[in-house]
User: Which sequence fits this backbone?
């Protein structure tokens, strides 16, 4: 494989700055109910730990979605149509990307949008080798904010948005609606979007998925404090915080927290924060939907609901949305 056969554009770097991280962390920890933003889980180490979570026996979403995507690939291929430009939000390691690209007819371009620069660079350099005809334009960005898409007019026949993994569950339903609206405006009329959405199910299955026996999810959660130590000169003692994750049936969401094991004071970029014993930092929400609930959310943002698929055990769903 020679370089000249790879259509890999230079990375568009809109990644959040240290100043943005600091502002977010300071604001989150200054609240009476302390919180951190889930998007900041994904530094190089966080992305690596997330991949490790996906391989644990308890974390069913990744393998369930991947198998479902393979099963429905022929249908997606005909519904999506030929010559698409694919834009993926939170592309991570890009394993599902290949399943999608392999089923599409003559995909023209691929725009992975990912907040972790390390994960993005690694994923696209491998992809470029295996898809020499595909134009790849990696964008390192926080996709919760609008950004400019590259223009493939005259080359591609339309966009296919791809938002797998139930990452949409990190948003509250109003935030999810706002995101879907933003993407619909970004892609414009006549385009489509595939969204992976984790389904509501037995509480025991959900609780196990976020409390794996090997403790990988706990490490992933605690890594957010390690990252603050590394990048913001923080002095969190990781041994003094404990992972907690539970399903709240009423809200239909997993909540992840870090619980302070004792009364303590932590300094971050020169600003101090006090923790009571048992006080928690809310680090993530992971909303679970019913098919109907997600359909109506999507439709409320102006998308039309074209199709939905689930696995035989009804653990996970993939929705195809269209913009008329
Ligand atoms: C990548 C956001 C979909 O919410 O299930 C996995 C992240 N957190 N285990 C999820 C996660 C804890 C994951 N998403």
Assistant:
């Amino acid at each position: 494989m020679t370089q000249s056969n790879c259509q890999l554009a230079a990375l568009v770097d809109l990644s959040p700055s240290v100043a943005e991280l600091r502002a977010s962390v300071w604001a989150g920890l200054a609240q009476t109910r302390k919180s951190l933003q889930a998007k900041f889980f994904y530094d190089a180490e966080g992305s690596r730990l997330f991949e490790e979570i996906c391989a644990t026996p308890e974390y069913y979403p990744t393998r369930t979605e991947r198998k479902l995507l393979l099963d429905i690939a022929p249908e997606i291929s005909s519904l999506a149509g030929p010559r698409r430009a694919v834009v993926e939000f939170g592309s991570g390691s890009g394993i599902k990307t290949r399943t999608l690209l392999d089923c599409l007819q003559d995909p023209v371009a691929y725009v992975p949008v990912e907040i972790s620069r390390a994960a993005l660079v690694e994923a696209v350099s491998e992809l470029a080798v295996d898809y020499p005809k595909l134009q790849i334009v990696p964008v390192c960005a926080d996709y919760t904010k609008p950004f400019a898409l590259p223009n493939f007019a005259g080359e591609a026949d339309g966009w296919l948005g791809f938002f797998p993994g139930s990452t949409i569950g990190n948003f509250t339903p109003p935030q999810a609606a706002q995101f879907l609206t933003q993407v619909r405006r970004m892609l414009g009329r006549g385009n489509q979007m595939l969204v992976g959405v984790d389904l509501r199910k037995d509480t025991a299955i959900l609780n196990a998925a976020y409390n794996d026996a090997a403790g990988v999810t706990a490490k992933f959660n605690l890594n957010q404090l390690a990252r603050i130590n590394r990048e913001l000169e923080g002095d969190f003692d990781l041994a003094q915080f404990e992972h907690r994750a539970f399903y709240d049936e009423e809200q239909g969401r997993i909540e992840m927290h870090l619980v302070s094991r004792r009364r303590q004071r932590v300094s971050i970029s020169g600003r101090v924060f006090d923790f009571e014993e048992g006080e928690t930092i809310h680090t993530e929400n992971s909303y679970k939907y019913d098919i109907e609930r997600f359909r109506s959310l999507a439709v409320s943002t102006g998308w039309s609901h074209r199709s939905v698929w689930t696995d035989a055990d009804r653990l996970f769903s993939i929705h195809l949305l269209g913009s008329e």
Q: What stands out?
A: The pocket of N,N,N-trimethyl-histidine is lined by residues 53, 61, 165-167, 169-170, 210, 217, 284, 286 (CB under 6 Å). The radius of gyration is 20 Å. Residues 18 and 231 are 7 Å apart (CA to CA).
